[in-house]
Amino acid sequence: MDIEEQYDKIYRFCYYRVRNKEIAEDLTQEAFLRFMNSRYEERGEVTRYLYTIARNLCIEESRHIKTEELPESISDGGTIVEGMMDKILVEGALGKMAVDDRELLILRYLNEESVTDICEITGISRFALYRRLNRAKKEFIKMMEGGKTHEQQN
Question: pLDDT digit string (tens) for 60-86?
Fold first, then answer.
């Protein structure tokens, strides 16, 4: 297992769940500590097990956290600002989505996890996963284009 690669994936997953850098770092570290202290036997499912631990920690944490505020002024006059603006738009769109939809998009497209692994992590069927991913992708694209989400219309 490549610890650095897995650490980055778990951190990214936690960050997009709790939307706070310090808390995501703590949750990632806690997930790895719990993994290392567990009696896990190598069966080729290390990633799934780590995601399950991280997901449970994020759910527990999300019950009592506030989101991280963005700084008021950001300027360097170049591509860093443009990249940050893209990141802010993506984070804003993801932040408006339902937690479950956001989780699926992060697992599949940011962390590039397999459909099989996502089904195991979330406990949903392949058919349900494909259906929910398609709906979440359409909603995300609509939000990136400035539209309202299904939740915002209700």
Answer: 887 765 544 545 544 445 555 566 666
Closest CA to 35 of 108, 27, 107: 27
Q: Which helix (H) or strand (E) holds 8?
A: helix 3-18
Answer yes or no: are the C-beta atoms of 94 and 16 closer than 8 Å.
yes
The answer to whether residues 153 and 146 touch, using CB atoms and an 8 Å cutoff, is no
104 near 136, Cβ under 8 Å?
yes
Same domain, 55 and 87: no
- What CATH number does residue 130 fall under? 1.10.10.10
**Total-model pTM:** 0.57
Domain extent at residue 146: 79-153
Which domain-ending residue is among 62, 97, 112? 62
In a domain, 73, yes or no: no
CA atoms within 13 A on the CB side of 53: 24
Residue 6: which of 44, 61, 51, 41 has the closest Cα?
Answer: 51
